[in-house]
Design a protein that fits this description.
- Helix content is 26%, strand content 34%.
- The protein is of the alpha/beta class.
- The chain folds into two domains: 11-128, Response regulator (Rossmann fold); 135-226, predicted glycosyltransferase like domains (Thrombin, subunit H, Beta Barrel), CATH 2.40.10.220.
- A six-stranded antiparallel barrel has the order 7-8-9-12-11-10.
- Strand 11 (184-197) and strand 12 (202-207) form a beta hairpin.
- The longest helix has 15 residues, at 110-124.
- The chain is globular, with a radius of gyration of 18 Å.
Amino acid sequence: MTLSSSRKFSARAALVDLHENSRSLLSECFRQFGIDAIPMTSDNAPRLAKEKFEACVVRVGSHAETVLEKARSSRSNSRMVIYGLGGTIKDAMKLSKFGVNAVFQEPLERPAALKLVKATQMLVLHEFRRYVRIPVITDVSIVAGQARFNASSVELSSGGMSLKTDESVSTGVPVEISFALLTLPRIWVRGTVSWHKPAEKTFGIRFDPRDERRLRIKEWVDSYLES
């Protein structure tokens, strides 16, 4: 897909502290979906508290927390889509209090980067009528019978969530999970494993419609999409 030089961008993504190759590749990926990429260094992080950005890509490392604190302290950027670059899922979960939505893996490869931008573009562009799942990374505690284990969230909706774990899970198993999100204190909710992809180490949980605690999740999702 080629963009003409006259095309107007409808959203901006800040690329913070990225190496030249990564910056160039991600700029091209975002621009294919009408998102203008604005390179900056962590020294320019105060811009994230003053200017409106719809997304931010930050290296998972020593300066990430400072950058994200600046972004989340701004009313206009408090709900921006945040991408991490590099590091592990465990590293990304250390930043979960800032609401990291997704992570670009390194070494950065064009097909994978395009796939991730395509999967999240509706959220960046605020076209929520076509996007009801919110990508977000946070630690999730799971109780399944006598077994207890942790997983990392992948996507969240008002009806359920997808997760990733090295543990073995089976479809149809009832579970109780607990997790916390940006502006949502830790919550517990019952559900059932609705699907499982062993090769990808991912599975899905459908929240129990009889568990009224899930309404807090629905309220959070609605608020996130409306802000």
